[in-house]
Amino acid sequence: MTSTAVRSEQENRERLLAGDIRALRRARGLTLAETGLMLGRSVGWVSQVERGLSIPSLSDLRAFAELFGVPVSLFFSHDVPVENERGVVV
Fold it and tell me: What CATH number does the domain containing 53 carry?
């Protein structure tokens, strides 16, 4: 796999994570300000995470999961198949 493909795969995962966090916040009727306050983070940071400009740490993901009432594993469920492994069944 080329470095460009790896980078593209990583960017796709980050975009999916950002979208999940935004969707969960909105589904719970929380504002950016409320979410930031509950997490002890700034509104700007939460906004950057939701736009994929900042990547939350594992402890941040745990805090999001607790706030939204979901398992932290939800944030890791979007594994993107590696191009040369698509269609391979083990």
Answer: 1.10.260.40
pLDDT tens per residue across span 34-71: 999 999 999 999 999 999 999 999 999 999 999 999 99
Q: Tell which residue, 69, 63, 61, has the closest CA to residue 17.
A: 61
In this structure, the dihedral spanned by the alpha carbons of residues 45, 47, 49 and 51, taken in order and rounded to 10 degrees, is -150
pLDDT band at 80 (very low <50, low <70, confident <90, very high): low
Task: Report the phi/psi class of residue 58: left, alpha or beta, with left for phi > 0 and alpha for psi in -120 to 50.
Answer: alpha
Domain membership of residue 10 as a residue range = 3-79
